Amino acid sequence: MAKNEEKLSLAVGLMSGTSCDGVDAALIETDGEGQVRSILSAFRPYDYQEQVLLRQALVDAKGMKDRKARPGCLVEAEALVTRAHKDAVSQLLSQKGASGLKPDVIGFHGQTVWHDPAAGVTVQIGNGQALANAVKIPVVHDFRAADVAAGGQGAPLVPIYHKALQASSVIPLQQPLAIINIGGVANITWIGQDGALTAFDSGPGNALINDWVFSKEGVAMDENGAIAASGSVDFLGLIALMGNPYFKKSAPKSLDRNAFDITPIKAMSLQDGAATLTAFTVETLCLGLEHMEIREGEPAKMVVVCGGGQHNGHMMEQLAEALDSPIMLADNLGWNGDGLEAEAFAYLAVRSMRQLPLTFPGTTGVKQPLSGGVYSPPV
């Protein structure tokens, strides 16, 4: 075996995002540094009742001070999250392309139910030890806690994986490069001319839109932005939403998925509310990129979009119209745009095992590069 091959690990990554739509699972081979090879991905959706439970967990977790407490329905929700992730691992590894492969580790993010780094609290439910026992594979979990305990924001965690993807891209990606992930919350990774990383949550992603259409129509998402496209943006409502003081804060910064009050749009129709919330996501992404352009003295040479939002055609059209920088979808680069966050947690699990840093001053505001995660072997 070649020397560099000895360092490679097979890793599964699992991500249940703040959109509450399901669990992404991905299998990669990596050294936790510059070598990354995507192998497989899978998706285990949450059904309607499961989504109802998870949304209730977000309500019951609000204001938590003790990250180990499980108020309200959180015990039941944590059991669901653990079970769903076990299903996702089984689904992933039962695919033909995984035949004969034995992962070295699983990166298990869990489900964020409360994130308040200013108070030193971030809560991701899901039992890492129980998952390790069930699937007979070591699990790295609780990725954010060490960073928050050290004074960091605990988010975003994916930027170091974005940098690895950019470095290994077969399509040259000039710097400065902006990589936008539109999940429940949207975040931006900025890779500067010198390769320096800056990252921050820019604002809402899909979560507010998903919650809106779920509450009005009982559907999980606005498929391709069709509902928003049939409505009209209420600009007074949009201005009120944009008045949140978060947008004046400098990066790095992070958000809880429920950080925004949608009272300004509550009386709107389904279509107009979806249109206004979609415009809110687009405007805050543009604001975040403008912030980096002013800070760095030049615009991004390219913007890459990943996450579920890349499939919202209406949102992508609005974003393309609003930006001067060229936009490319992650899928068109050969990246796994939907499974990218899951891949990132596979990558972070390998870095954690090798005691490499996961977070950095420019990504979470932590004072020095810091590793993290809890390692749980099966028993």
CATH topology of the largest domain: Nucleotidyltransferase, domain 5
As a whole number of angstroms, the C-alpha radius of gyration is: 19 Å
Count of individual domains? 2
Number of helices: 13
CATH superfamily of the largest domain: ATPase, nucleotide binding domain
Share of residues in helices: 25-40%
Shape: globular
Give the N-terminus to C-terminus distance in angstroms.
Answer: 31 Å
Order of helices and strands: HEEEHHEEHEHHEEEHHHHEHEHHE
Give the class-level CATH name of the largest domain: Alpha Beta
What is the beta-strand fraction? 15-25%
**Overall pLDDT score:** 94
Number of strands: 12
- How many strands, which pairing sense, and closed or not: the largest β-sheet? 7 strands, mixed
List keywords for this structure.
single chain; 379 residues; Nucleotidyltransferase, domain 5; 7-stranded mixed β-sheet; 36% helix
Structure description:
With 379 residues, the protein is α/β, with parallel strands linked by helices. It has two domains: 3-153 and 339-376, 2-Layer Sandwich (Nucleotidyltransferase, domain 5); 170-333, ATPase, nucleotide binding domain (Nucleotidyltransferase, domain 5). It is 36% helix and 21% strand. Strands 1, 2, 3, 4, 5, 6 and 12 form a seven-stranded mixed sheet that branches. A five-stranded mixed sheet has the order 9-8-7-10-11, sandwiched between helices. Strand 7 (177-182) and strand 8 form a beta hairpin. Helix 2 crosses helix 3. It is globular, with a radius of gyration of 19 Å.
